[in-house]
Amino acid sequence: MGAFRDWLQDRPAVGYGVVGLIVVIAIGIAMTRLARPTEVEELGQFITLKDSETGERWKVPLGAIERNLHGRELPIDPKEGMPNPTTGKRTGFPEKDWEKIVQRVMAERQQEMAERQKTLTPKP
After folding, report:
1. Preceding peptide of 75 cis, ω within 30°
2. Are residues 9 and 68 both part of a single domain?
3. Stated pTM of the model
């Protein structure tokens, strides 16, 4: 160990290079982890819904929206929104990305059904 220390003391640029590389890697990892929310954080984000009939607004976690959509029969009709807490009608829509949310949930459910069919299909 002493020989390595002596060698490194004679060449400080190597030591600084290794430390610099470690710092760059640490910054890269931190930026990628902090840049995008995890799935749990994303599902906990509150989405503002607006009733298409009354104009009333309320906030719901994205996870509750997805849970509601997962409970519906396929195909999910994007013209049916989330239930309004006061009227009970499915007239609540997010201000943006409703179609994307519905498409993503439908794709997830269809994939789950296909995987379930594979496990239920008897092998010859």
Report:
1. yes
2. no
3. 0.55
One domain, residues 111 and 75 = yes
Q: Which residues contact 60 (CB under 8 A, 6 or more apart)?
A: 46, 47, 49, 82, 92
Number of domains observed in the structure of the chain:
2
Helix or strand or coil: residue 57? Answer: strand
- One domain, residues 27 and 8: yes
Instruction: Give 4's DSSP letter.
Output: H
- φ, ψ of residue 52 in degrees (nearest 5): -75, -20
Q: What is the pLDDT of residues 66-97, one digit of tens each?
A: 888 888 888 878 788 888 888 888 888 887 78
| 90 in the same domain as 62 | yes
82 vs 37, residue with greater confidence: 82
Q: Which residues pair with 60 in a beta bridge?
A: 47
Which residues span the domain enclosing 9? Answer: 2-35
Residue 22 pLDDT grade (very low, low, confident, very high; cuts 50, 70, 90): very high
